[in-house]
Every structure is written in structure tokens, then in C-alpha cells.
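Our preliminary data section would be incomplete without showing what the modeling component actually yields. Below, a chain of 71 amino acids is followed by its predicted structure, encoded as C-alpha cells that our downstream tools consume directly.
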Amino acid sequence: MWGTTTILIIAPFFSWAVSILFAISQEEGFAGVALMMLLFPLFFLVGLVVLLIGFLKKERTIKSTADSNMN
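Predicted structure:
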């Protein structure tokens, strides 16, 4: 759930907000665009890793629950 939220909501908004604030402080729009091009893929990858960890952890939990029920 957190991986999907990070990918779809947090990554675009946070990268946009930080880039706009940076561009205003530097008075340079291209710096803001460049920062956005760096931050968005970074946060996207973080969300993807969180999503994959969630899938793998859920599979292990299901397997361990099934194994403990057999005993």
C-alpha cells in the first residue's frame, strides 16, 4: 500500500514542491526543472522498492502461516 502511495501521490507532489521552492530561491526555472527530473525518478524507485518489499514480506508471512498450521 505504501509503495503504491509513494509512486502515485508522494513522488510527483514532493518532487514538484521541492523543485518549485528551489527554483524560486535560486531565481532560475531551469534549475527547478533539473531538480524535478532528478527527484521524481529517485522517489519512484523508493516507492518501487517499498512495493516489492511489501509483496515479498506478504508471501513469506502467508507461507510461514501455512507451515505453522500444518504442525
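The helical segments are 2-26, 29-70. The CA atoms of residues 60 and 66 lie 10 Å apart. Preliminary results of this kind motivate Aim 1 of the renewal.
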